[in-house]
Structures are given as structure tokens and as C-alpha cells.
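Section handout 9: paired folding examples.
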Amino acid sequence: MKKKLSNRSILLIVLSSFAIIFLGLSIITSVVNVNNTKKAIDKIGEVKYSIETEEKIDNAIEKYEKLDRNIGLNKRVSNVKELEDAKFNYVRLAIKKAIVLDNRKVADGITNEEISLAVNEAKEKLEKYYKENEYETITGYSEFKFLEGKYGTKNESENTQNNTPSNSEEIEIC
């Protein structure tokens, strides 16, 4: 004669089964999220100063930040250094663009507005990816600080007012 299971036993078996299923799904989801993050970082590729590169970096950062740190998923991303390097190089290129424009303004006829735009854009990238106490670690930042003071947002009205005389003086001198 077969012994019938009690309702409590059946409920316990069903709930245990669900717990195992959900645990399995959680593990699979975690592995997939880590792999997707690694792929997003790999897709960054060669860092250029372009919207496409910025979008790839932002996508990788978003995926990385969504990983559950409580269970150490972020530590399972083996190529996180590549992401940090990509951010560094992207900001470095933004700063370099502003510096080059300033250095070439007379030779190439670059206006103060163009330089100001590049400086403000570089500052935006710097603030987006780094904290203020980390700015000094970026190559070219010390030279950029000078440009920021000269062409930055707070001095934009001064730059607009002084743009024409300053350019004409430089052209006459050369």
C-alpha cells in the first residue's frame, strides 16, 4: 500500500523546486550579465574622439555599473582595465583637441569660439567620467586648466566680446 504525502510535504517539495529553479535562473542571469559586460567593453575597440566611441564607452559603463557588487559580479569582469583605459584615452583626446586648436589658432585661423567650444566639450567629458580629485591623472590636464580659465564657460561672454580684437591683433603681429 502506498503512503500518501501530506499537504505540507507537497507544499515543501513545490516551494523547494521553485527555489532551485529561481536560484538557477539567477546564476544564469548573472553569468550572462557578466559576459555581456565583457563583450560591451571589447566592442569599444580603438578609442577615437567620436560620438560612436563615447556611446560604446557609456554602454559598457552602464552594463558594468548594473552588475551586483554584493555578490562580486563586478570582480568577474576580467577586462575592466580596458574600460578604464578607454575612458582615460577618450578624455585625453578631448583635452588634446582643445590644446591643439589653441596652439594652431593663428596658423589655421581658428576662432576663440571654436576653441571655447572644444574646451567646454572636453570639460564636459572630464566631468562625465572622472571626479574632480582625479583630473590631474589625465595627460595634458595641467595645460588644459589654463585653457579652461581662458576659454571656459564662465569666460565665454568675455571671449565673445574680445574675440575680434584678439584675432586681428594676432594676425597683424604675424
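Moving on to protein 2 of 2.
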Amino acid sequence: MKKAPIFAVILILLMIGIGAYSLPNRDTNPQAMPTQPIESRARALSEPEIQSMLFEIDKSFSGGTLEHRKQLARTLNEAYFKTKSVDLRRKISNTLTRLLKSEADTSVARAIAMSHSRLYFDDNTLANLKDAYERKVLSFDDYYGELAHVFPGAPPEVREGIIRDIAASHNRYAVDIVASNINGDNKMVLSEYETTELQKFLRTNEPIFSGTADAYGQFEAIRYEQWILAGANLAKSTGSTSAEQFMVDKLLDSKTDPRALVAIATSPFMNSLPPEQRNSGSWALIQSKAQDFINKNPANPSLQLAGQQIVLNSK
């Protein structure tokens, strides 16, 4: 039985890092340390208790310390996912919206904005993000990163505008999140316009391998794998080409950085291919070219480790 590739382990760590960048989120509710009775109660709340909590927060929020107010914002996010009541979820959304508008401290306002943006998309989502960005509560990366997080859950009549804004931003952090969303949500149905805009966004924001020509970083390799897989998935959805052909054409293009070939040759994607497919045709050529580049740079330990991984994958 093969050992899990180090690349896969690093991918998990990177995804954890991306998620932690702007916790709380929709998929993993924040596990915040309780500092006040309200927070401790948010672990297991009935609907009447959530109602009571909202009332108490309205009364006490402005008088709390900075850290206490941040914690209360995260607690509201957590309570949102502790109930299935549409009415209570709307009240929590409205409470966070009201607190965001009245909060003067930038760090607290950022915690509130992030806590709200990771709720399910509603009428407050875009208005809150725009308000926080205009007030410089959210940074450039924060804002476009959050737009990239929320667009899959937005209704079609709103989603096109969000995608247009993301595409115009050329924000590289948003590229990572968009790619992750495309690769992870097979049920997302995009319009022709949305697909075209996202393809253009990815194409014009190809991840760059930094440093000298022989420098090789695992995080950059992971970003490249996610980026090319997203492009392949979009191309496949249009019927213009297969996902495999899209990747092969890009990787064997003479203008492609050879480190991209190393990234894919050592990736979880490559390791997921059946051995007979992985070790023949275009994929075998990609691995061979990656090894050629590795062999030309014997002093780079990261590349040498990648070379060992390619050999291991080929068995």
C-alpha cells in the first residue's frame, strides 16, 4: 500500500490555512473559546435561548471590550448554524448587520463582517461587504476573497454581477478561492456568461512560481494544481474539450513554466489516475519532462524530493 504523498498532506494544510484566513465559515463553525456566559451557552441552544441571546447582545454589545465584541460576533455566526429556523436566522443576520453599521472599531467591525459573510447568502450579504470595504474595515484581499466565497450561494440574478466584480479585480487570493469552489462543487450550474467570465479570470491570473528559475515551493505547486483543474473543469462544462486535453495542452505548451509540470506530476490529481493512464501517452511525457527539469537542478532539495515522488507514483 502506497504512503500518502507529501503533496497531499501539504494540500490539506493549505486548505486549512485558506479556511482559517477568514473564519468563521459556512462549513466549519468557529470553535471559539467562551469568555462570557452568552458564548458558553451557544454550544447547545434551543430557539428560545437564541431569542434570549439576541436580546442580551442588543443590550450589552456596545459596552463590551474589543475582544468580547469580536467573540459575540462569532457566537452569533455559530448560533445561526445551531438552528434551522428561517426566522431566527434572519434575526441573526439582521443583528449582525445592525452591529456592523454601528461599530466604530475596525478590528471588531471586521470580525462582524466576516461572521456575517459566512452565513448563507441573503439580502444583507453584498450590502454588508460593500459597506465594510468602503469603510476600510475589509482589505482588498478580504473583500474579493469574501466575494469569491459567497458567489456559489448567490441567486443567479445576483451571481453574474459578483463574478463580474471578481473578474475585474484580478485578486490572486480570490483566484485560489474561485478555483477551490469550482473544483469542489460539482452541483454548481453556471450560465454561459458566468463560465466565460470565470475562464477569463483564471486565464489572466495564472499562478506564478516565484524566486529563481529553479526555485520550487509546495504551496505554489498546490495553487497551480487547483488553478489548472478549475480551468479544466470549466472547459469540460462547455463541451469545448475534455478536462484531460485542456490540462495536457497547457502543460505541454512551450511557454509553460517547467515547474508547473513538476507540480502536476507530483499532485494528488496525477496520483489519482489509474497506473496504466498515468504511465502512458501525454501523462508519461509530462512526467518525463518534469524529471528532466529536476535532473537539471540537482542542488534543489525540494525538486529532488519531487523527483522521488514522481518515481513513487509511477510504480
